[in-house]
Amino acid sequence: MANEDLISVDYEIFGRVQGVFFRKYTQAEGKKLGLVGWVQNTGAGTVQGQLQGPRSKVKEMQVWLKSTGSPKSNITKAEFKNEKTVNSLEHSTFNILK
């Protein structure tokens, strides 16, 4: 894993993802996988953020964001964009932004 690329990817999750503790669960799952980044609600009723970490763990988190989420969420679509390799992590932890 030491040789694994670090990547960064932006995401936006659609569906019933606000008011269902989605951000809290996303933060907990990200930390569990050893990722850094952020998550926040948008004015459009979606949740968006950024993930950074080893490629395999980011991919694992993308699957979680697409299919699991928080227990009361209903995910209809997950978009991932701006994926790129990074030399070092740009965040020190996984934050919930207001």
From TrEMBL:
Belongs to the acylphosphatase family. The keyword Disulfide bond does not apply. It catalyses: an acyl phosphate + H2O = a carboxylate + phosphate + H(+). The active site is at R23, N41. Residues 8-98 form the Acylphosphatase-like domain. One of its GO terms (molecular function) is acylphosphatase activity. The keyword Hydrolase applies. Its EC number is 3.6.1.7. This is Acylphosphatase. It comes from the Eukaryota. It comes from Sander lucioperca (Pike-perch). Keywords: Hydrolase. InterPro entries: Acylphosphatase, Acylphosphatase-like_dom, Acylphosphatase-like_dom_sf, Acylphosphatase_CS.
